[in-house]
Amino acid sequence: MRRWYLFPLLMVLFACGEKKFIPDVTGIEAPLSLQRFEQSFFTLDTTKLDESLLDLTNEYRGFPQDFLFNIMGTRPDAVRQDIPTFIRSYQPLWKEIQAKFKDMTEEVNTIQYGLKMVKYYFAEYKLPERVITFIGPLNSYGSIITPDGLAVGLQLYLGADHPVYQSEEGQQMYPKYISRRFDRAYIPVNAIKNIIDDLYPPNYADKPLVEQMIEAGKRLYLLDQFLPETADTLKTGYTAKQLEGCLENEKNIWSFFIQNNLLYIVDPEMVRDYMSDAPNTTALGEASPGFIGQFVGWQIVKKWMVKQKDPQNLMRLMETSAKKIFEEAKYKP
Q: Which of 294, 291, 297 is nearest to 214 (CA)?
């Protein structure tokens, strides 16, 4: 069982009218190296593929297998054909990414800071020690956690206006409300989200809406503690205008759920309207964000945490049922 403990030295940050306690994690060790898998992969000697793949495995351990079969999506009997084809097809993108992501110091440092925070709150969690960058198919992963480290698919961080996302094919895969988040500023956020899911795998899809909102709010609260100086727009995925609108209309949003008797609905079709990514929440208007449920849950969790004797105990938060949090928070914006 992971154990929570408290360091004696705390810093205080004031932001958005809230007092945040930020622990001093400078003394926490979280070794983290960057490995550029895409550079090794795109310079493979395809005339000696068996030897080249063996060299990759020696350097990157199990990640080449994950890349080939889970990310690139090839089959064991098609490796010899698929690898050269993929390298030829994505060669122009690789060259662009080489220039655009020549230096990733800022992203790696932010991830490392987040990992130190994770270690501060969850001392027994085994931190990943590598960030592994790769270039996968456009319809593949942008951020995953593997036994070998935190893997980052750079093909999904080229900037919202990149032509590959704005093309007809790109928009079919990733509408603008999704592709606007394909910016390198999201790399640390998505990496730490994977850590949270590894700590507490999501398992609440069958719960009433209010409990699902609180469970999503717990995760957003953790993300806020792990990356306290990262913009809330990055953590929520909302635009600045959407987030501002949520904060200004918090009371009205809550009233909408109360007046329409939505808190205890379990119908997946109805729940999806408030718990899924979308351009907006239809019932709340075009200016609202999709996945409004995480915002409501986040506010309930913050209300509950303020009432706790040990408001820095994130393990207790995650292990307290959403039902109990809702009952004790007495949320009323």
A: 297
Provide the token pair at 333.
């914006």
Positive or negative CA dihedral for 49, 50, 53, 55?
negative
Q: What does DSSP assign to residue 227? A: S
Q: How far apart are CA 286 and CA 8, in angstroms?
A: 46
Q: Which pTM value belongs to this model?
A: 0.92
Number of alpha carbons in the 13 Å side-chain half-sphere of residue 332? 3
| Per-residue tokens: 246 | 């949520």
For residue range 310-325, list pLDDT tens digits in order. Answer: 888 999 999 999 999 9
Contact indicator for 93, 135 with CB cutoff of 8 Å: yes
- Do the strands 33-36 and 130-134 form a parallel or antiparallel pair, or are they unpaired? parallel
Residue with tokens 């928009």: 171
Tell me the C-alpha distance between 210 and 265, whole Å: 8
In angstroms, the CA 172 to CA 225 distance is 35
Give the dihedral of Cα atoms 49, 53, 55, 57; nearest 10 deg.
Answer: -170
In this predicted model, what pLDDT tens digit does every residue of 111-143 receive, in sequence order?
A: 999 999 999 999 999 999 999 999 999 999 999
- Phi and psi dihedrals of 4, rounded to 5? -90, 140
C-alpha span between 213 and 273 (Å, rounded): 12
